[in-house]
TrEMBL record:
Annotated keywords: Calcium, Carbohydrate metabolism, Disulfide bond, Glycoprotein, Glycosidase, Hydrolase, Metal-binding, Signal
Known EC number: 3.2.1.1
Reaction(s) catalysed by this chain's protein: Endohydrolysis of (1->4)-alpha-D-glucosidic linkages in polysaccharides containing three or more (1->4)-alpha-linked D-glucose units
Biased composition (Low complexity): 616-642, 654-668
Glycosyl hydrolase family 13 catalytic domain mapped to chain residues: 34-413
Gene3D superfamilies (alphabetical): Glycosidases (3.20.20.80), Golgi alpha-mannosidase II (2.60.40.1180)
GO molecular function list: alpha-amylase activity; calcium ion binding
GO biological process, alphabetically ordered: carbohydrate catabolic process
Annotated source species: Filobasidium floriforme
Segments of this protein annotated with the region Disordered: 567-688
Required cofactor(s): Ca(2+)
Name recorded for this polypeptide: Alpha-amylase
Compositionally biased spans, kind Polar residues: 574-583, 599-615
């Protein structure tokens, strides 16, 4: 019994310290939906934590709208339906709870004690319930963390001591924990100013000395326990630019999960300082700058697609691993795209660009609804359910072009991720550089074409060379077939509006099951769901990838092709039967001329859902073969490595180079291994956590049982 108790104690320790950790390899290939908790989902009367419900919440007032962790749970299926496999929620920790000249701390970034939760958003059990509900759907949770500063009111005085005397709620009670004297940043490009001074004036964000041994000890001990208690999958570090890279590295190592930092710089060369050996990932602000000047009219006198390509090239040269960068076309700190450009087709092109280049794409809540309010950052956090003029949608419809585009591209990404090494491939231009209006790029087995011509385009064609296709290519956004020329090129027309294209070969398009009317497409006949028993997953000995056969009835009849987008949002057969299956006896309506996404015919939701999905012993016990990341041959896309020569570090308008890498410098290389399709992300019976860790955990049990003589 003594040995047994020792074993139980050891296993409990292992379970709490290992099972929930999610590394950058496990994050690679995922996509995130960013949530501002107070503004995303209106609570029911039973869920509300404040008196009364705010039906119409004016974002200009920066007042509380009442969204909380409980209300997010009810909308997780809305997020999952778009194909997202992760959410990023705004800070969860205690904030100052007063009205300031800037409004209230609805965003969560005015933290005064990271060791306590914000009661405005719920209890400890509420947060745990949200994270568990996300995991049940195969969705990772990234929590925004603020450790760079401590907020206090009223506005900061001359010394830290005076602020400590006036505010007993400030977390650190000794002056040595802060940079002293208190100062305000006036030059965001000057060191050490942007590391030791504060950001705002009317709200004092007192800069914490994160290099202080006592501060580091407090933070590292807290974050380790916090991540373990709540089973958090990743951290977003607010204001990472304002902290020393080494202290961030130590903090993230203590957390044991992937960290993505906010380094607000449009120069990839500057961001490199934080990624080289320090933090796993950062937000891709250089690429965002390129997106702005390619797709948002007032960002530059003339839209310039070359700016997007230049920034992509620059980023791939300076950053070792761009496959885990946080790519985005909007967030809480920048104007909403639709507020500046209300051409939904241009927005569609921008979303295709952000979702198809390498990285962990992030979509800001409400952008999928084409919200048109928010020319400045404090106005772009409107309640998604609000109906105040100019705000936009109120009831989470799914018919917006942006929503449908995001969903369809996720389906394509899901297929590519599970059928190839897409997650480690880089996007490379294959059309001639210099065009201000369009570009064609290749990433792995996919080719995508984007343009800023807009919905009013009535002319123009583009020949896309070196596609690698033979015979026929299929635009997966409209399920339209294109003839491939003898030289491997495909010609597209912008005569019916400047729509984007996402091409796969006819073979891959058919295998994906996304366009069921294609010759050779996977069967989509759906039998009564009660007849579905199990779906067995096996691992290919040749490729090491998970093989997903069709589901079968108890009589052994094939009833439905197993969708391959499990990693990108689907975690069980229940998740995909009604959403992605299409009967074969009805045609699919394709309305490509107006830019709409062709949708498979939907199946009635009658009857029970498939009851169980299990993996075979091969899947459960055999780790997939890891693939070395290395430069690939031409014509098949590029893997995560640097360019052969330094690119031009251009301005956002695509102008002449401002800085370049050292002459003749060797390209940055990645020597790490990719996710290799982590079994937890393809085994539909498990939550989103690492099956690899579970296997190792079981192995440890066997060893310890033998060791202890049980």
């Amino acid at each position: 019994m003594k040995n047994f108790n020792a074993l139980v104690g050891l296993l409990a320790c292992l379970a709490t310290t290992s099972v929930n950790a999610a590394t950058k390899e496990q994050w690679r290939g995922r996509s995130m939906y960013q949530i501002v908790t107070d503004r995303f989902a209106q609570p029911t009367p039973e869920q509300a934590l404040t008196e009364g419900l705010v039906a119409n919440c004016d974002p200009k007032g920066a007042t509380w709208c009442g969204g909380n962790w409980r209300s997010i749970i009810d909308k997780l299926d809305y997020i999952k339906d778009m194909g997202f496999s992760a959410i990023w929620i705004s800070p969860v920790n205690q904030n100052i709870d007063v009205t300031t000249p800037y409004g209230s701390a609805i965003h969560g970034y005015w933290v005064n004690d990271v060791t306590k939760l914000n009661p405005r958003f719920g209890t400890s059990n509420d947060l745990k319930s949200l994270i568990q509900a996300a995991h049940d759907r195969g969705i990772y949770v990234m929590v925004d963390i603020v450790i760079n500063h401590i907020a206090t009111m009223p506005r900061g005085k001359g010394t830290v001591k005076e602020m400590l005397d006036q505010d007993p709620l400030m977390m650190y009670r000794d002056e040595g924990s802060y940079h002293n004297p208190y100062c305000r940043i006036r030059d965001y490009g000057k060191l050490p100013e942007y590391r030791v001074c504060t950001i705002l004036t009317e709200v004092a964000l007192v800069d914490v000395d994160t290099d202080s041994p006592s501060v580091q000890s407090t933070l590292n001990s807290w974050i380790k326990g916090f991540v373990q208690e709540y089973a958090i999958d990743g951290l977003r570090l607010d204001a990472a630019k304002h902290m020393e890279p080494q202290s961030q590295k130590d903090f993230c190592q203590a957390a044991g999960v992937m960290c993505m930092g906010e380094v607000y710089s449009n120069a990839a060369q500057d961001q490199k300082k934080y990624t080289d050996g320090f933090i796993d990932s950062i937000h891709s602000y250089p690429l965002y700058e390129g997106f702005k000047h390619a797709f948002i009219p007032d960002s530059t006198p003339t839209l310039n697609m070359q700016s997007f390509l230049n920034k992509l090239d620059e980023q791939q040269y300076w950053i070792k691993d761009t496959t885990v960068l946080g790519t985005f076309f909007g967030n809480h700190d920048n104007p909403r795209w639709y507020a500046k450009n209300q051409d939904a087709v241009i927005g569609q092109n921008a979303f295709v660009s952000a979702l198809m280049v390498e990285g962990i794409p992030t979509v800001y809540y409400g952008d999928e609804q084409e919200l048109a309010y928010g020319l400045v950052s404090c106005d772009n956090r409107q309640a998604l359910w609000s109906t105040i003029g100019g705000v936009g949608s109120s009831n989470y419809p799914t018919d917006k072009l942006a929503y449908q585009t995001i969903k369809r591209v996720h389906q394509v990404r899901g297929y590519l991720s599970t059928s190839s090494d897409f997650d480690t491939q880089l996007a490379k231009p294959i059309t001639p550089k210099g065009s201000k209006t369009e570009a064609g790029l290749k990433r792995g087995k996919a080719v995508f074409v984007v343009t800023n011509r807009g919905s009013g385009s009535t002319e123009g064609t583009l020949k896309v060379p070196s596609t690698g296709f033979n015979g026929t290519a299929v635009d997966m956004l409209t399920c339209t077939s294109f003839q491939v020329a003898a030289d491997g090129s495909v010609e597209v027309s912008f005569a019916n509006g400047g729509k984007p294209f996402v091409f796969l070969s006819i073979e891959d398009a058919a295998a994906s099951g996304i366009c069921p009317d294609l010759p050779g497409a996977a069967s989509t006949t759906v039998a009564p769901s009660s007849a579905v028993s199990t779906i067995s997953l096996t691992t290919s000995a040749e490729t090491g990838k998970t093989v997903m056969p069709a589901a079968t009835t108890s009589a052994g009849e094939i009833v439905e092709a197993m969708p391959s987008s499990i990693k990108h949002g689907a975690s069980s057969a229940d998740d995909i039967t009604q959403d992605q299956a299409t009967p074969t006896d009805g045609p699919v309506s394709i309305t490509a001329s107006d830019g709409a996404i062709a949708q498979p015919t939907q199946v009635s939701g009658e009857g029970e859902q498939p009851s169980s999905v299990v993996g075979t012993s091969e899947t459960s016990a055999t780790a997939p073969e890891a693939t070395q990341v290395a430069a690939s041959s031409s014509g098949s896309g590029s893997t995560a490595s640097g360019n052969e020569a330094p690119p031009q570090a251009t301005g956002a308008d695509g102008s002449a180079p401002q800085a370049t890498g050292p002459t003749g410098a060797a390209p940055s290389q990645i020597d790490s291994q990719p996710d290799a399709k982590d079994p937890a992300t393809t085994s539909v019976g498990n939550s989103a956590h690492s099956t690899g860790v579970q296997v190792s955990f079981l192995g440890t049990m066997v060893i310890m049982i033998a060791y202890l003589g049980l």
